[in-house]
Each structure stands twice: as C-alpha cells, then as structure tokens.
Amino acid sequence: MRYRLVLGDITRLKVDAIVNAANRTLLGGGGVDGAIHRAAGPELRETCRRLGGCETGDAKMTPGFALPAAHVIHTVGPVWKGGGRDEEGLLASCYRNCLRLALENGLRSVAFPSISTGAYGFPVEKACRIALNEVAAFVDVHADAFDEIVFCCFSASDRDVYRVLMQELGLAF
Ligand code: AR6
C-alpha cells in the first residue's frame, strides 16, 4: 500500500475509483464535479439522476463511463460556515464513507480531490489534516485492502500543504 501525491486533473487518473466532490443533488456542478461529468460523458448524469441525491458526509458510487477510472465515488462535503456546524466531523465522514464503499466493492486504488476546499470554502490546511488522518486511520485498520491512495491537488500551493502534512504524519509517498 502506498500513498501518492499528484498535482493535476483527477479526471486523467487511471485508478479503480476517483472521488467526486459533488453537491447533494448529484446532478453536476462546477469545479471538480463539472470536470468529472464532462470527462465521463452524459451517461454519468443519467445514472446519478437515479441515485436520488446524497446527504452531506455520505457517499454513493457509479461507473466511470468514459473516464480512465473504472468508478466514481460521489461524496458531498460540508459548506464551511466558520467551523461551528460540525464541518470537520462531516468532512471526516466523507473520507470514511468513500473508503468504506471502495472496501465493500474491492476497489484497491482510490484518488481523492481536496473535498470542500473550493466552492465550499473549507480552509485547505484544516481539510488536508482531516483527509490524511481519516485515510491513514482507515488504511491502518484495513491494511491489505488497498494498493494505492492518491491525493490529487489542483494547485501547487495545495500540493505543498499536502506534502508538508504527509511528511509530518509519516505518510511516505
Ligand atoms: N482535478 C482535481 N481537483 C480539482 C479539479 C480537477 N479537475 N477541478 C477542481 N479541483 P470544488 P467543493 C479542486 O469547488 O469545494 C461544485 O460545483 C479545486 O481546486 O470542486 O467540495 C459541486 O457541484 C479544489 O481544490 O469542490 C458543489 O456544488 C477541490 O477540487 C461544490 O462545487 C474542491 O473544489 C462542491 O464544492
């Protein structure tokens, strides 16, 4: 099992599942959600329509259609409202539920974007710490379940935040 830190477009990654930072409708939007829907093609929206939305902190899975990734795990991060609305707990729950779905479906490589840190305004360093702690805790318990977990950043400054915290937490990559 290894961690990989990538700077670039998550829609280009050939992994068992990429994670989408979606909204509760699951019907598409801007940011990484828009990019994933564009790259996957219209069948993704049709399939998502049948899922009946998704609660904040929860996750649902679809095929990847035209994406190089076999599956998309759609999760809905919290909108940052200052930290008093359980935003941290809800973000942690996103990571856990995505990995639980991957585990249940035998998906061994998963790539995460930095959930909630774009349109939803979650401070990147706080979000990164939650992401790394939740993923590391899950992987510790399910040591043989995964080959690779990718953290895919879309800016060099986010990538630098991840790199420093990964080193701090001893997550070799
Ligand atoms: N590959 C990887 N990361 C990306 C990509 C990409 N192609 N595009 C953007 N990012 P955001 P959120 C980064 O706003 O904050 C949507 O409209 C981006 O730079 O995509 O969870 C949904 O429909 C940032 O670091 O998601 C929701 O309404 C990270 O992905 C809402 O935005 C997350 O930014 C969700 O907001």
From TrEMBL:
It holds the Pfam family Macro. It comes from the Bacteria. Residues 1-170 form the Macro domain. InterPro entries: Macro_dom (IPR002589), Macro_dom-like (IPR043472). PROSITE patterns: MACRO. CDD domains: Macro_OAADPr_deacetylase. NCBIfam families: PRK00431.1-6 (NF001664). This is O-acetyl-ADP-ribose deacetylase (Regulator of RNase III).
